[in-house]
Amino acid sequence: MIVLGIETSCDETSIAVIEGDSVLSNIISSQWVHQKFGGVVPELASREHVKLIIPVLKDALLKSGLTLTDVDAIAVTTGPGLIGAVMVGLNFAKGLAMALQIPFIGVNHMEGHIYSNFLSNPGLEPPMLAVVVSGGHTQLVLMREHLQYEIIGTTRDDAVGEAFDKVAKLLGLGYPGGPIIDELARQGNENAIPFPGGNIKGYPLDFSYSGLKTAVLYHVQKLSREEVEKNLADICASFQKAATNSILKRTEKAMKMNDISTVVLAGGVAANSRLRHQLLQMGEKMGWVVSIPDMEYCMDNAAMIARAGLQRLQNGEHSSLTQKPFATLPLTSKVF
Ligand code: KG4
Ligand code: ZN
Known about the structure:
The chain is built from ten helices and ten strands.
């Protein structure tokens, strides 16, 4: 089955063509208009998606070597995301599906992140624990079967990617902060500053990142501008250690508590080099199957949406033309 995937939930306009677990093309156009604002401007994102979606579709088809008439179904992100941005992709998908007289399926963006693992590691099978870490989410998701989700741990305040972005901002670095901190941390000593992990009494699988962010702020406020510059790599490395250890610690607990031996990493923060490295090491020690998506599938991309859509289509599901977009959309709620 050939599935065309469409992803426009934030600031990446992406269209992909997949055939089963094989990605024939996955074009991702990142919007640079937001850079000077230090964050994504929703209205600008929608307008950029409108401008980019047809050129991106043409590129995706060209790279796949197929034409629109070869496509069997369309999968599109219906949320969570910036509502105007989601609407651009969703309406485009509806128009294409109508014109081509093929089914389309609405996909939860976070389900897409989880299913990116099946592109990088096609042999994976539930039961598994999905560690979902992005700019908007930090969740431990128990997946006993395909498309079945139980949230067993979540953040009480900021998402981990949000913490990376906020810390980067207070250090005067660019946006998004995650990749910049990751890079700077390579030259730093991660044991230089003992930042707190963010434990919540009585809830061993829940996360908190606001205390960590504030601890970095207080630390920086005590230093002069020159001292911050001089210690930048150590601050980044120490923050990154605290942020990722909090994920690793809870992952280990969740795996043991639920007697699970497969863990998959998902979301933008899955690109973090320390998290990837440490999770692989932990998996080796514990005898787990560990899946980490290739870098191309960690960032927002349409191949993951197509792969999740394929799973739902194979399950006999599809959406109707009354399908709505959603700004918030829990993994456990129905998309259509
Ligand atoms: O999944 P994603 O692209 O968008 C959302 O759905 O939120 O995730 C974006 C988040 C941003 O907060 C970004 O700073 C973070 O992922 N991120 C990273 C890295 N690359 C991206 N965080 C830590 N280390 C990285 N290498
Ligand atoms: Zn995402």
